[in-house]
Amino acid sequence: MTLDEITLKLEQMQSDPTMVTKGIYSPSANEFPGNQLPFVEIHLAYLRKHQSVNPSHYLSNLQIMIKQR
After folding, report:
1. Which one-letter DSSP state was computed for residue 67?
2. How far apart are CA 69 and CA 60, in angstroms?
3. Rounded mean pLDDT, 13-42
4. Longest dimension (CA), the chain
5. Considering only CA atoms, which of 46, 67, 68, 69 is closest in space to residue 58?
6. Could you tell me which residues are beta bridge partners of residue 36?
7. Cα(14)–Cα(10) distance, rounded to whole angstroms?
8. What's the confidence (pLDDT) of residue 34?
9. Is the dihedral of CA 52, 57, 59, 65 positive or negative?
10. Model pTM?
11. Is the pLDDT of residue 68 over 90?
């Protein structure tokens, strides 16, 4: 998967009202309002840091974990 495909998939998850996609506070996130890292940025940072992780598997598992039941 390309970075654009990953970003698009994360944005789709974020816009889906049936998924829990909260941002988190980070003191180093000065470029975001209220120092809140958005859902998309959190997971892009994780994938950048852990390059051995398969992005399609990660996104598939993430989707299962954040789905409201």
Report:
1. B
2. 16
3. 86
4. 34
5. 46
6. 25
7. 6
8. 82
9. negative
10. 0.84
11. no
Nearest to 39 by CA among 67, 18, 65, 20: 20
Can you name the residues that pair with 19 across neighbouring β-strands? 67
Cross-strand bridge partners of residue 25: 36
* Per-residue H/E/C for 10-65: HHHHHHCCCECCCCEECCCCCCCHHHEECHHHHHHHHHHHCCCCCHHHHHHHHHHH
Tokens for 35?
A: 């120092």
Tokens in use for 33? 């309002």
pLDDT at 54: 96
One-letter amino acid for residue 12 of the chain:
Q
Q: Do residues 7 and 57 touch, judged by C-beta distance below 8 A?
A: no
Residue 69 has pLDDT above 90, yes or no: no
Average pLDDT score, the chain: 90
